[in-house]
């Protein structure tokens, strides 16, 4: 009987995966015809497929299958984003990147927390917990958008890099505030900074080490014996980078992003991959990343809790409007404007103000808070889903239009 039940569960999961692949492939085609980011269509299709409408796909947010897809999918998408980053560009904007991925998270959390306190009537510490949950941007959303909409190189790479580097700061801030809210800890700036430095440093070291080793085995003239297995090497290394960093209590997402940067800048490291090898790897990564974002955003759509959102809809929308139109612009101008070396133009800053989609990372943090029965967790989850829907449906769909208006679009 046990075996039969397990078999039926496996068949059910396989059926849902087949539905996601079939509907997702068609949705990707529709997105291309409409010339909008495919994550938008995936999210909307997921809402239709989920328990609230058709109930064709029903994978719980706290299930091991869902967590596996979210972790591996986000990691692979982040690796894909890192591979498109050019080191010469990061050299120009590293000051902005450092400030906006650290201090910028604090600014966003503080302003959003104040809005939650005022409009939702939450206790100050719970309001700050909500602000902290929403404070980090989401690489799984931003990377696909910038892959499909060609923006001025340094702007796109700054925003993508920020989304990779600030998840550690967002997680540290969220759980520090949670400790205070649950009466099990006190805020220590020195402890938080040390924790952030440790997570960041280990993540960078692990990602850089594995990235260099992968480049050696794929592209070295003498030791590149795995050249024809490059796609499999990337899969192993992405999993290895995330798990190694996570096992050492550092940022797994930062590790896979840095791994991607190393592999995407092989020529700068002294390696010379052949054109056919590059073409093989690029095609594989592009296809795999497409499948990963298909699964992530369709599943995210199926898990939208309309009943919970309805309880706090209008006050939640107001908080998210402050989050989008006040907190983000304040963060960008306060963190990027002082960087004289980067010489940001007003148009570039305005574009960065609009591109800060919320997705998997804040959604995962909100889910963890619900599971831990944190104070105000249901309200936080509700507003987080409102933020995910609003930022993806409004900001992602208007990215290309705004870039064209601000003359940042690269044809």
Sequence of secondary-structure elements? HHHHHHHHHHHHHHHHH
Shape designation = globular
What's the overall average pLDDT, rounded?
A: 84
The CATH architecture is Up-down Bundle
Structural class: mainly alpha
CATH topology: Na+/H+ antiporter like fold
Contiguous helical run count: 17
Kindly report how far apart the N and C termini lie: 60 Å
The major beta sheet can be summarized as: none
Helix content: over 70%
- Total domain units: 1
Rg computed from alpha carbons, rounded to a whole number of angstroms: 21 Å
Number of strands: 0
Query: Which percent range describes the beta-strand content?
Result: under 5%
Low-pLDDT runs: none
Instruction: Give the C-level CATH assignment.
Output: Mainly Alpha
Overview of this protein structure:
This protein has 411 residues and is mostly helical. The chain has one domain: Na+/H+ antiporter like fold (Up-down Bundle). The protein is built from 17 helices and no strands. The longest helix has 33 residues, at 2-34. It is globular, with a radius of gyration of 21 Å. The model has no long low-confidence stretch (mean pLDDT 84).
């Amino acid at each position: 009987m046990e075996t039969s039940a397990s078999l039926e569960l496996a068949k059910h999961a396989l059926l849902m995966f087949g539905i996601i692949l079939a509907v997702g492939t068609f949705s990707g085609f529709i997105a291309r015809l409409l010339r909008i980011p495919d994550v938008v269509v995936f999210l909307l299709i997921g809402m239709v497929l989920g328990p609230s409408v058709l109930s064709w796909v029903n994978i719980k947010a706290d299930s091991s299958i869902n967590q596996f897809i979210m972790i591996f999918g986000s990691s692979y998408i982040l690796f894909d984003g890192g591979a498109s980053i050019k080191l010469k560009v990061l050299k120009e904007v590293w000051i902005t990147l450092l400030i906006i991925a650290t201090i910028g998270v604090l600014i966003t959390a503080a302003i959003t927390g104040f809005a939650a306190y005022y409009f939702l009537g939450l206790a100050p510490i719970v309001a700050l917990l909500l602000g902290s949950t929403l404070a980090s941007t989401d690489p799984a959303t931003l990377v696909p958008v910038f892959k499909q909409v060609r923006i001025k190189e340094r702007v796109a790479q700054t925003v993508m890099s920020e989304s990779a580097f600030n998840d550690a700061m967002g997680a540290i801030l969220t759980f520090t505030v949670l400790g205070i809210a649950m009466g099990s800890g006190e805020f220590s700036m020195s402890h938080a900074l040390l924790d952030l430095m440790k997570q960041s440093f280990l993540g960078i070291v692990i990602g850089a080490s594995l990235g260099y080793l992968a480049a050696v085995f794929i592209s070295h003239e003498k030791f590149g014996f795995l050249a024809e297995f490059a796609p499999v090497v990337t899969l192993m290394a992405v999993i290895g980078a995330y798990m190694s960093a996570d096992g050492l209590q550092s940022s797994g997402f930062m590790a896979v992003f840095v791994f991607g940067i190393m592999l995407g800048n092989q020529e700068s490291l002294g390696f010379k991959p052949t054109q056919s090898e590059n073409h093989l790897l690029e095609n594989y990564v592009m296809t795999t990343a497409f499948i990963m974002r298909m699964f992530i955003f369709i599943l995210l759509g199926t898990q939208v809790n309309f009943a919970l959102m309805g309880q706090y809809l209008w006050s939640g929308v107001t908080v998210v409007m402050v989050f989008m139109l006040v907190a983000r612009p304040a963060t960008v101008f306060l963190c990027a404007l002082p960087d004289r070396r980067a010489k940001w133009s007003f148009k570039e800053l305005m574009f960065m103000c609009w591109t800060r989609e919320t997705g998997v990372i804040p959604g995962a943090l909100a889910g963890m808070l619900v599971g831990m029965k944190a104070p105000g967790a249901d309200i936080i989850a509700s507003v987080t889903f409102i933020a995910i829907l609003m930022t993806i449906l409004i900001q992602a769909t208007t990215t290309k239009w705004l870039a064209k208006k601000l003359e940042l679009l690269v044809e």
